[in-house]
Amino acid sequence: MTDRSYGFDTLQIHAGARPDPATGARQTPIYQNTAYVFRDAEHAAALFNLQELGYIYSRLLNPTVAVLSERVATLEGGVGAVACASGHAAQVMALFPLMAPGCNFVASTRLYGGSINQFNHSFKHFGWEVRFVDFENLAALETAIDDKTRAVFCESIANPGGYVTDLAAVSAIAKKAGLPLIVDNTSATPYLCRPFEHGADLVVHSTTKYLCGNATSMGGMVVDKGTFDWSASGKFPALSEPNASYHGLKFHETFGHLAFTFFGIAVTLRDLGMCQAPMNAFQTLLGIETLSLRMEKHCANALKVAQFLEAHPAVAFVTYAGLPSSPYHARVKTYCPKGASAIFTFGLKGGYAAGVKLVDSVELFSHLANLGDSRSLIIHSASTTHRQLTPEQQRAAGAGPEVVRLSIGIEDADDLIADLDRALAATAGAVAAE
Ligand code: PLP
Asked: Can you list the residues of the chain whose pLDDT is less than 50?
């Protein structure tokens, strides 16, 4: 079912799913299965030539995973999506068709710390260069782009800092340079932000977070809007030129607006192999059924907790973009009018020591490295997720030594506030005793 006239709440339950053709089962079955029987030799040849679509081997396509891909593509308003094993795998999948050794992409400094590491260090092994720029400085973004640049990358609501990217302004620069804008929409989800409506060409997700919502299953997704012209500039030969592994087939010429999606399945998953497990896709489909309900509660709780922290004497600042005091509050209205999600940071007047004491003092919050769970989570970024970064990179990513990140869950807001209140009191004592 892909009727876009249905509302979000309907699509999050139905998009991509249909009663199982073999049994009539109404819930999407877990096709825990590796390979699929060909009707005959002709059928097999047609599948391998990409002349007919169908299931060959679950590294490429699996029926449960395909339902998840179609559901996320529909919720984002894209033409197609490819699921993969994790959010980090999705970032590789998004860039692999675009990049080549010696090419670069320009990325925002305000990214999840793991993405900064992946881009800065591991991508070097592919000969890919990342150029980090503060996307508040649009002139610097424009200057960083050269004839070897192949993409522009940012997060809609950045993890961890409560920063909202001016997607329209960034997209205008990418478009002027003839480059695709890739937006990581993990923190916002398609319920809060729809990057394609603001100029994005590709959306990536860690479905591990809010889309799954129950912290059971790793997963990633790359969604294509389907409107970027991969043949116009000659910069994307993987999509526009003959592919030797498919007898000279040209993906863009052959598959049109589905070229990126088909390349993702037929080449990237086939050769890099980062496929998603059917069980994980099933868990994520269950999670997505309640996405809008959960995001409403996440946002309402986050606002209450942020307001409490902003008024607390031990707290130096709160970055929640849903607060009127946030410099990005106006952008929330433009880009995520239903709410500013539920991940934000706050600074402790007691610095690094207070941050460490706080995470050791909470009871209801879980001290761990994740976000987007129905449970409330806390982490001191500088001693954990952002530990490998230089102090300058930590500050640029909004994760300085005094900074604590919260991912607010869907429990009772009053209980969360009481837990933080108790832990903050313990922090004050510890700092004073030093
Ligand atoms: N993007 C964002 C915004 C994230 O927060 C994360 C993980 O925290 C990732 C990507 C990577 O996702 P995964 O852990 O599923 O590989």
From this structure: 1, 433-434
